Amino acid sequence: QHGSVARMMRVGVTLWALLAVVKAGLPDQYILGKQGDSCAVACSKVGQQCSTSVLTDNSNAIFAKVGVTCTKTSQGGKWWADDQPSYVSGANDPGNNSGDCLGYIDVPPVVNCAGSFPTTERICHCTGDIKDECWFIPGGEKPCWDNTSATALTFGTGLSGGTLPAIETTLFAHQIDADGAGGQLTHFWSTCSPAAENSMMVRYYIDNETSPSIEFHPSMAAGVGFDDGTAPWGTKWAGLGAGHGGGQAWFNNFKIPFTSSVRVTIQSMDGKSYNGFYMIIRGGLGLPLVIGEVPLPKTAKLQLQKFEGPLKPLEWLDVVSVPKGKSGQVFMTAISVNNSGIGGYNFLEGCYHWYDPIDAAFPGTLLATGTEDFFDSGWYFNAGEFRFPVSGFTHGVTEKNVTEWSAYRFHEMDPLRFSDGVRMTWRCGDITAGAPNGGDKCFAESLATGGRPVGNPTCDHVISYGWVYVF
User: Fold this and answer.
1) Using CA of residue 77, residue 79, residue 85, residue 87, what is the dihedral sign?
2) Nearest-5° Cα angle at 206, 291 to 240
3) Residue 463 to residues 54, 198, 202, 337: CA-CA distances in angstroms?
4) What is the pLDDT along the chain (471 residues), one digit of tens a residue?
5) Residue 325, SS3?
């Protein structure tokens, strides 16, 4: 059975007249979403909206309608989580429910469009016909470039008191001469209610991408998990200017290069729209791309590599993975772990490793002898939360059945560069074993090579952001 906390997966009027409109046309339909997708995302991919009504008649026949033959179930087929009804397609399902048809009996009259789980494919009721006038959904009729000159040195826009929509909506789109000096987005800021911020997803489509290379939740982009509203704080790169349980104001000044065009979209991922939304996007033409003291080439592109889901004890996570033949530099890493009701902080024993080239043998280069060590602290962060220019421990709760933690690190002062692909890994906990340097951890690849786990590490729900420049 899945941990209930692990299932609480984050899913997430513009400056022009309404850019996304709903028209009658496509009939209502039930579809099977892709593994890990919420119904809000699955329906948007077919040009429709998610309906909160899923009618099953308490029968698994609904699975046959979307091409799934049910041979087994669990919990007697009764609904018990927000990502249901669903088919468990992932072979590594933590509840050992692979191949099960779940949650088709006693489905609530209103389901959560934002619910998702990494190993399940949801049955979704999609309705309406979304036709985007700004081409962010296939079939859009016209581009929606801003009216700023392609040679303007400064460009951007702002939205004041608008709507954070349930349909992905283009807020800003700008194009430049592809043979010119190149452009950069350099500033993001938004403010809204905590409920809106909790559901918000921002996407950057670089150089006519059809899938965004950057897709982020504003607080996690600043290295803060659980929408922790502690404020004010900030580094030159990111922070929170308003919070304390009220309206939040997140910002970042990440340098996001593009060659010919950039498009920024916003969306509420819980199926609801929120008023009182404000946002600013800004950038410039011909700006140098320098991270710390390292100048990067004009061809560099910033990627956000994300993971969200459970990890098994001692399981490895690729924080960043870039294929052979590519060079680059890691810019920032952020991670949050929720073990509420499951375990404690022993996951902090996990070590960080660096493999350059990507196929280098274990242990590669050891980056940190423990998780808190990597974020410039020690002893399980016994001095409490902090938000330094280079690193931060941004959220920590260990009380009763609540275990929550998040942290960030910018790699500006200690550049992590690579020349032939790279893997940067973190582990959920680690193994005590004899090490070649006389130490007792980080050098055992598996329990089969000897040693024992340090404590009882668990990672019920992990969110990892790895920002990396690639060229």
Assistant:
1) negative
2) 55
3) 29, 14, 16, 7
4) 333 333 333 222 223 222 333 334 568 899 999 999 988 888 878 878 788 889 999 999 999 999 999 999 999 999 999 899 999 998 888 888 999 999 999 999 888 887 889 999 999 999 875 544 453 333 334 456 787 888 999 999 998 998 898 878 888 999 998 888 899 999 999 999 989 999 999 999 999 888 899 999 999 999 999 999 999 999 999 999 998 777 889 999 999 999 999 999 898 988 888 999 999 999 999 999 999 999 999 999 999 999 999 999 999 999 999 999 999 999 999 999 999 888 899 999 999 999 999 999 999 999 999 999 999 999 999 999 999 999 999 999 998 889 999 999 999 999 999 999 999 999 999 998 766 666 678 998 888 877 889 999 999 999 999 999 999
5) coil
* Prediction pTM value: 0.76
Straight-line distance from the first to the last Cα atom of the chain, in angstroms, rounded to the nearest whole number? 43
Please give the Cα distance from 114 to 365 (Å, whole number).
Answer: 39
Ordered DSSP codes for 43-65: HHHTT-EEPS----TTSTHHHHH
